[in-house]
Amino acid sequence: MRLFSKKSVAVAALLTSTSVVSAADVEVLHWWTSGGEAAALNVLKDDLSGQGIGWQDMPVAGGGGESAMTVLRARVTAGDAPTAVQMLGFDILDWAAEGALANLNDVAAAEGWDAVVPAALQAFAKHDGNWISAPVNVHSTNWVWANKAVLDELGIAQPESWDDFVAAMAAVKASGRTALAHGGQAWQEATMFDGVALSVGGVDFYTKAFIDMDPAALGSDMMKETFDRMATLRSYVDDNFSGRDWNLASAMVINGDAAFQIMGDWAKGEFLNAGKVPNEDFLCFRVPGSAGSVSFNSDQFAMFAVSDAGAQAAQGAMAASIMSPSFQSAFNVVKGSVPARTDVPNDAFDACGKKGMAELAAAADSGSLVGSMAHGHANRAAVKNAIYDVVTAHFNGEYDSATAVEELVTAVELAQ
Ligand code: BGC
What we know:
Strand order of the largest sheet: 2-1-3-13-6
CATH architecture of the largest domain: 3-Layer(aba) Sandwich
CATH topology of the largest domain: D-Maltodextrin-Binding Protein, domain 2
Bound molecules: beta-D-glucopyranose
Structural class: alpha/beta
CATH superfamily of the largest domain: Periplasmic binding protein-like II
Shape: globular
Distance between the termini: 46 Å
Mean pLDDT: 94
Number of helices: 19
Number of domains: 2
Helix content: 40-55%
C-alpha cells in the first residue's frame, strides 16, 4: 500500500535547509511488540518504504512505555537520540520543555493539522504554541473485551452495570473457567484502575483525583470504593496472573480460556490478528458503569532535533505520512485505535472501531473525555508511577483498601 503523496515530498523538502534531499533512514523507538501491534507497525513501515525511507527498528516491550522511556533517557544522555519516538501525553511535553524535540510547524501548516486534530490531542502535541509531535491514533482504556461463545454458552448477557459485571464473573468462575484474564504488571493494573474509577465516580471524580490531584478526591470514599472494586476484580483472576504480558491475557479470551479482559483497545488488534470478528467472536463494551465516559491516550511520534538534513527530511516525511487521512484509516483499522483527526471516514472500521469513533466524538462534545492516568495523559510520569505503585501493591494484597487510599494521598503529594 502506498499512502505517500507528492505533498509530503514538498513538506520534506521544506523541512530541510538544503535543496537536494538525500533519502535517510528513520530510527524509531517504540513499544509495539505484540502480534497485533507488529501488524499495525508494518502499515507504517510499508508506507515509509514506499517513499524510500528506511526503517531502523528500536523496539522496547512494555505497555504504557515505561521501559521505552527509560531506554530513551539513556540514549539521549549518551548523545544518541533516536530520530522518531513513540510517546504518550506528558512525556512529550516534558521532552519538549527540555528543548530536545524538533519543531514540526512547517509540516503541520502545510498539511493543515490545526483544523483537524482535536483540541484534547493538540494539548499534548504542541508546546508553547509549536507542533512538536504527530498523533498517530486515539486509544481508550475503559474497555472490556469478552469471548462471545463463552458468554452464550453460560447464558450471560453483556453486563450493563457493575453489579451485572460481578455477577457475570461469578458465573464464569463457577463454570471452572477464568473470569478475568489479567497480566500482573503495574501498568495493566493501572489500566483497569482508569475504568474502575470512572465506573465509581464518573469524569467528575476522575478529573478531581487524577488530573487536579485534589487530596480530598484522592482520599475520598469513592476512592475507597475504587480500590474495593479492584479487590473484587483480583478475586476473579487466575492463579498465574503475575508478570503475564497483556497480549497473553488477550489470548486467554481469544481462546475461550477466559471470559473477559479489561484493557485498552489495542487488545482489539490481537483479536483481529487472530482472525476474530467483533460481535460474532468477541464483544467490546465500556467497563460497566463507565459508559459515556472515555479515558483516552494518543500515541504520538515525537522527532528528536537532529542537524543532518537528510534525517530532517525523513522526519518531516514520516510526520506528514502519519497525519495523512488514508494512513490514519489504514493504520488504526489494524491497531484497534481510532484516527487522531476528525475528518477520517469510519467506513473501513469494524463495529468496535465505529463505536469507538462515535463514543470519542460524543465524549468530547459532552465534556466526558479525560486523559488516561495509566497511559500518561492525566499527570506527569512521577505522579503516574507513584499511583502505579499503590495500585499494584493493593492489587497484590499488600494494602487493604483503606490503607491504599491513605498511601495514595501521600504518594501523589510527594511525587508532585
Ligand atoms: C500504547 C498502545 C500500546 C499499548 C500496549 C499503550 O501505552 O498507547 O499503542 O498498544 O500501550 O503496548
